[in-house]
Amino acid sequence: MNKSKTEIIEELAKEKTVETIINNITHSNNDILNDLAQDIYIDLLNKEDELIIELYNNNQIKYFITRMVMNNWFSQNSPFYMKYRKFSIMTDQYDTDDQDTVEGDNDRV
Asked: Does residue 70 lie in a domain region?
């Protein structure tokens, strides 16, 4: 029995395939990883039905998802990087508990 694109993506979601791939690539348990997983699922739903079905039938869907995750996680031009990761990296640079950093920031204004 051939599965539809929706059935394939539902199966991937039940097995947490995307989340597992993300954790294996990033080695992180950051809150933004849920956003990345959601973006990947949305991207999969927006792909052509034939592509997802062919990849699934040829056992290439995990490789395809891995490429999607890597492109989103590492590429500074990806929408995910621009929305979440860039901001997260920028905020990690500032230690709000360090009074000198806060005062130094005010001096530049």
From this structure: yes
CA distance 13 to 57: 17
Mean pLDDT across the chain: 82
Burial of 49 from C-beta contacts in 10 A (0-12 / 13-18 / 19+)? exposed
Question: Considering the domain boundaries, does residue 39 fall inside one?
Answer: yes
| Local structure of 76: helix, strand or coil | coil
Whole-angstrom Cα Rg for the chain: 18
Confidence of residue 17 (pLDDT cuts 50, 70, 90): very high
Residue type, 62: K
Residue 18 and residue 69 in contact, taking contact as beta carbons nearer than 8 Å: yes
pLDDT(58) > 70? yes
Tell me the pTM.
0.73
Tokens matching residue 84: 């979440």
Residue 103 located in a structural domain: no
| Number of domains, the chain | 1
DSSP annotation of 47 reads: S
Task: Tell me, yes or no, whether 57 lies in a domain.
Answer: yes
